[in-house]
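TL;DR need C-alpha coordinates for one chain.
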Amino acid sequence: MEIHHGRHHAAYVNNLNNALAGAPELAQKSIEEILRDLGSVPEAMRTAVRHNGGGHANHTLYWQSMSPSGRRTPSGELARAIDTRFGSFGNFQDQFTQAALSVFGSGWAWLILEAPGQLRIVTTPNQDTPLMNGHQPVFGIDVWEHAYYLKYQNRRADYVAAFHKVLNWDYISERYEQLLKK
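>> reply
TL;DR here they are.
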Protein backbone atom coordinates (compact mmCIF):
# COMPACT_ATOMS: atom_id res chain seq x y z
CA MET A 1 0.00 0.00 0.00
CA GLU A 2 2.88 2.39 0.66
CA ILE A 3 4.15 1.98 -2.91
CA HIS A 4 0.60 2.16 -4.24
CA HIS A 5 -0.05 5.46 -2.45
CA GLY A 6 3.40 6.99 -2.45
CA ARG A 7 4.31 6.22 -6.05
CA HIS A 8 1.26 5.34 -8.15
CA HIS A 9 -1.21 7.82 -6.68
CA ALA A 10 1.48 10.48 -6.34
CA ALA A 11 2.35 10.05 -10.03
CA TYR A 12 -1.29 10.67 -11.00
CA VAL A 13 -1.33 13.87 -8.93
CA ASN A 14 1.97 15.12 -10.35
CA ASN A 15 1.00 14.30 -13.93
CA LEU A 16 -2.42 15.92 -13.49
CA ASN A 17 -0.84 19.08 -12.11
CA ASN A 18 1.56 19.17 -15.05
CA ALA A 19 -1.29 18.68 -17.52
CA LEU A 20 -3.35 21.46 -15.93
CA ALA A 21 -0.44 23.90 -15.75
CA GLY A 22 -1.47 25.38 -19.08
CA ALA A 23 -5.11 25.81 -18.11
CA PRO A 24 -5.42 27.90 -14.94
CA GLU A 25 -9.22 28.11 -15.35
CA LEU A 26 -9.42 24.32 -14.94
CA ALA A 27 -7.03 24.30 -12.00
CA GLN A 28 -9.64 26.35 -10.10
CA LYS A 29 -12.21 23.54 -10.38
CA SER A 30 -12.43 20.38 -8.32
CA ILE A 31 -11.29 17.21 -10.04
CA GLU A 32 -14.86 15.92 -9.81
CA GLU A 33 -16.15 18.96 -11.74
CA ILE A 34 -13.48 18.50 -14.39
CA LEU A 35 -14.19 14.79 -14.84
CA ARG A 36 -17.95 15.33 -15.03
CA ASP A 37 -17.39 17.70 -17.95
CA LEU A 38 -14.35 16.18 -19.66
CA GLY A 39 -15.54 17.52 -23.00
CA SER A 40 -14.77 21.05 -21.85
CA VAL A 41 -11.10 20.16 -21.31
CA PRO A 42 -8.97 21.29 -24.27
CA GLU A 43 -8.40 18.31 -26.54
CA ALA A 44 -4.61 18.63 -26.35
CA MET A 45 -4.69 17.81 -22.63
CA ARG A 46 -7.92 15.77 -22.39
CA THR A 47 -6.26 12.33 -22.41
CA ALA A 48 -3.74 13.30 -19.74
CA VAL A 49 -6.51 14.80 -17.59
CA ARG A 50 -8.74 11.76 -18.13
CA HIS A 51 -6.07 9.24 -17.12
CA ASN A 52 -4.34 11.18 -14.36
CA GLY A 53 -7.39 13.03 -13.07
CA GLY A 54 -9.34 9.78 -13.01
CA GLY A 55 -6.43 8.07 -11.27
CA HIS A 56 -6.30 10.82 -8.65
CA ALA A 57 -10.07 10.95 -8.02
CA ASN A 58 -10.42 7.16 -7.97
CA HIS A 59 -7.52 6.65 -5.59
CA THR A 60 -8.60 9.44 -3.26
CA LEU A 61 -11.96 7.74 -2.75
CA TYR A 62 -10.27 4.33 -2.51
CA TRP A 63 -8.07 5.46 0.40
CA GLN A 64 -10.94 7.23 2.16
CA SER A 65 -13.08 4.08 1.96
CA MET A 66 -10.67 1.91 3.94
CA SER A 67 -9.70 1.85 7.60
CA PRO A 68 -8.07 -0.63 9.97
CA SER A 69 -11.04 0.00 12.27
CA GLY A 70 -14.63 1.12 11.93
CA ARG A 71 -17.96 -0.46 11.13
CA ARG A 72 -17.66 -3.48 8.82
CA THR A 73 -21.22 -3.35 7.53
CA PRO A 74 -23.25 -0.46 6.15
CA SER A 75 -25.67 1.43 8.35
CA GLY A 76 -28.64 3.75 8.05
CA GLU A 77 -29.94 4.70 4.62
CA LEU A 78 -27.19 2.81 2.82
CA ALA A 79 -27.91 -0.44 4.65
CA ARG A 80 -31.59 -0.16 3.71
CA ALA A 81 -30.75 0.75 0.09
CA ILE A 82 -28.38 -2.23 -0.24
CA ASP A 83 -30.98 -4.61 1.18
CA THR A 84 -33.64 -3.20 -1.16
CA ARG A 85 -31.46 -3.30 -4.27
CA PHE A 86 -29.47 -6.50 -3.69
CA GLY A 87 -31.66 -8.47 -1.27
CA SER A 88 -29.04 -8.56 1.48
CA PHE A 89 -25.59 -7.32 2.35
CA GLY A 90 -24.19 -10.79 1.60
CA ASN A 91 -25.73 -10.74 -1.89
CA PHE A 92 -24.24 -7.30 -2.44
CA GLN A 93 -20.77 -8.51 -1.40
CA ASP A 94 -21.04 -11.49 -3.74
CA GLN A 95 -22.09 -9.34 -6.70
CA PHE A 96 -19.44 -6.71 -5.97
CA THR A 97 -16.77 -9.43 -5.76
CA GLN A 98 -17.91 -10.91 -9.08
CA ALA A 99 -17.74 -7.48 -10.71
CA ALA A 100 -14.21 -6.91 -9.38
CA LEU A 101 -13.10 -10.31 -10.62
CA SER A 102 -14.70 -9.74 -14.03
CA VAL A 103 -12.61 -6.68 -14.92
CA PHE A 104 -10.40 -7.68 -17.80
CA GLY A 105 -6.93 -6.24 -17.37
CA SER A 106 -6.84 -3.07 -15.33
CA GLY A 107 -9.72 -1.08 -13.96
CA TRP A 108 -12.16 -0.64 -11.11
CA ALA A 109 -15.38 -2.07 -9.66
CA TRP A 110 -17.76 0.45 -8.11
CA LEU A 111 -20.88 0.87 -6.08
CA ILE A 112 -22.50 3.91 -7.66
CA LEU A 113 -25.46 6.12 -7.05
CA GLU A 114 -27.06 6.23 -10.47
CA ALA A 115 -30.25 8.12 -9.72
CA PRO A 116 -31.66 9.42 -6.45
CA GLY A 117 -31.32 6.46 -4.12
CA GLN A 118 -30.67 3.94 -6.95
CA LEU A 119 -27.57 1.84 -6.35
CA ARG A 120 -25.78 -0.17 -8.99
CA ILE A 121 -22.52 -2.09 -9.30
CA VAL A 122 -20.46 -1.17 -12.37
CA THR A 123 -16.92 -1.55 -13.64
CA THR A 124 -14.71 0.91 -15.48
CA PRO A 125 -11.54 0.30 -17.46
CA ASN A 126 -8.19 1.87 -16.67
CA GLN A 127 -8.62 5.06 -14.61
CA ASP A 128 -12.06 5.92 -15.92
CA THR A 129 -14.50 6.96 -13.23
CA PRO A 130 -18.29 6.83 -12.92
CA LEU A 131 -18.19 10.63 -12.76
CA MET A 132 -17.50 10.61 -16.52
CA ASN A 133 -20.90 8.98 -17.05
CA GLY A 134 -22.81 11.31 -14.75
CA HIS A 135 -22.89 8.87 -11.82
CA GLN A 136 -21.72 9.30 -8.26
CA PRO A 137 -19.24 6.71 -6.97
CA VAL A 138 -20.05 5.59 -3.44
CA PHE A 139 -16.82 3.56 -3.24
CA GLY A 140 -14.64 1.48 -5.51
CA ILE A 141 -11.90 -1.11 -5.58
CA ASP A 142 -8.77 -0.72 -7.66
CA VAL A 143 -8.12 -3.97 -9.52
CA TRP A 144 -5.02 -2.83 -11.37
CA GLU A 145 -2.20 -5.24 -10.61
CA HIS A 146 -0.26 -2.46 -8.87
CA ALA A 147 -2.94 -2.54 -6.15
CA TYR A 148 -2.32 -6.13 -5.14
CA TYR A 149 0.54 -7.81 -6.99
CA LEU A 150 3.28 -7.37 -4.39
CA LYS A 151 1.23 -9.04 -1.68
CA TYR A 152 -1.17 -11.28 -3.61
CA GLN A 153 0.72 -11.93 -6.90
CA ASN A 154 -1.94 -13.07 -9.38
CA ARG A 155 -4.55 -13.90 -6.72
CA ARG A 156 -7.03 -11.07 -7.34
CA ALA A 157 -9.77 -12.99 -5.51
CA ASP A 158 -7.71 -13.02 -2.30
CA TYR A 159 -7.12 -9.26 -2.62
CA VAL A 160 -10.84 -8.58 -3.13
CA ALA A 161 -11.72 -10.73 -0.10
CA ALA A 162 -9.18 -8.80 2.00
CA PHE A 163 -10.56 -5.48 0.70
CA HIS A 164 -14.01 -6.36 2.07
CA LYS A 165 -12.42 -6.73 5.51
CA VAL A 166 -10.99 -3.19 5.58
CA LEU A 167 -13.90 -1.24 4.14
CA ASN A 168 -14.87 1.61 6.43
CA TRP A 169 -18.65 1.46 6.28
CA ASP A 170 -18.94 4.43 8.67
CA TYR A 171 -17.33 6.62 6.01
CA ILE A 172 -19.11 4.94 3.09
CA SER A 173 -22.55 5.18 4.75
CA GLU A 174 -21.96 8.85 5.54
CA ARG A 175 -20.79 9.50 1.98
CA TYR A 176 -23.92 7.86 0.58
CA GLU A 177 -26.14 10.07 2.72
CA GLN A 178 -24.23 13.18 1.57
CA LEU A 179 -24.61 12.11 -2.07
CA LEU A 180 -28.37 11.73 -1.61
CA LYS A 181 -28.55 15.40 -0.56
CA LYS A 182 -26.88 16.65 -3.77
